[in-house]
Amino acid sequence: MRNSLLGAAKPAHGLEREHPFCLLCAKPITHPICPFCISEGFFTWMAKFPEEFRVCDKVRGFLSNHRRFSGGVRCISCHKKRASVCPKCFTNFLYQKVKEAGLGVRALLEFLFIFNFDFEHDTYSKELEHLGGF
Q1: Which residues pair with 73 in a beta bridge?
Q2: CA distances from 126 to 30, 37, 123 (A)
Q3: pLDDT tens-digit map of 5-17
Q4: So where are the chain's domains?
């Protein structure tokens, strides 16, 4: 009887500890770029707008909340296991913050051309079509 209980507490292998699904949409993370790497490019892009601090503070809040999660997929950019949210969900969050800041149609179009991870065209890229981007 003792031998059967020993196998129950066996440590998981490295791949079994990873959480390959997005914490927001629960779909598999197929393009593992972590929010931290995407946000570096976003912060650089936002630097040319006067509303930068207001938008970037909200993004930094999101990032600080996600630093606690471990077991994400390994990011193809920084090689750290920090991809716990898929790029589509994270860029959708960024898009909503840019839209809320009222940066204008030109900024929204530019954002959608640079940071578009909506490959299925079922969320924010629909707005790109309405704005005349496709």
Answers
A1: 83
A2: 21, 25, 6
A3: 444 444 445 444 5
A4: 30-130
